[in-house]
Amino acid sequence: MRRTNPRPLESVMEAIRTAKSFALVSHVNPDGDTVGSVLALRQGLLQLGRPVTLFCQDKIPDDLAFLPGAEGFRLPENIAEGEQFDLLMCVDVSDESRMGRCASLMKLAKHTAQVDHHGTNPNFCEANCVDGTATACALIVKELLERLGCTITPEIAKCLYVATCTDSGQFSFPNTTAEAFDAMGDLMRTGFDLSGAHRKIYRERDPRQIKLLGRALNTLAFHHNGQIVSLQLTKEDMQSCNALPEHTDTIVNVGLDMAGVRMCVFARETSVPGTVKCSLRAVEPAAVDKVALAFGGGGHAQAAGCTLQMTVEEAVAAVVSLMEAELEKEE
Ligand SMILES: [Mn+2]
Q1: Ligand 1 centroid to 57 CA: how many Å?
Q2: Rounded-to-integer distance, Cα 281 and Cα 275, Å
């Protein structure tokens, strides 16, 4: 561990030392960081010889299911009569509402603690360690486990790697720090299977996703001198690939993977007749949130969405025309 200034983990460590049982909570719509961090923390706490239960209100995504212990997450509703925990720990949960229905577990715990890396966290637990400069919550968990005297096993390393890699855009986002790379060195020394873990999260796709992508790419069209890209799928495309809506999740991003492209819309017919879902993306500083908002949707500057009542062709034309207007504003 190369950090010279340790994080203020004392109150969290004290809460852990005095607890005989733990409940660990991941945030809603769980991502690699909240799942990987909880699973690493679980294995460390098990080394201390005390029972650990995991909770998340939503299903763990399929691409994270290979992480050790991922099958053990419980729904907050599946709590046994009279079940209690000494310490409930929130991991990567930026505020109480991010627990969703798991927030009801707070009152079943004798004490609460958290580790998090969202600077806006209001310190809603009794013991808090929030470091907004940490690349991923996993780096705080790693320091916590080391200071508790736990061994970073290859299985723990795999969880911490997946958490840090996914929250940093494979070590490319501005939140990527030297500490993240130092930590990776420590994790590599455990001998964990880096290539295998990377393949699980970034390469292995459901065949239906690839088939759908192929169909969507057949509709690839350029607008506004190649600065706007559109992609679309019909109900028939979905049915012939036997695909679910979740299999379309990353298609819109492919539209941005070309030089000169600044905005992309991916439009998909839903099972409701005449209803089209649109995903919008932009390359900074271009922004699509106002476009989504104009159609009653919403989101972030570079990732937004909306639902339109028209044909898929009409939806693409409508969104592209507002995208053009956005780009023309700056010209
Ligand atoms: Mn995170």
Answers
A1: 17
A2: 20
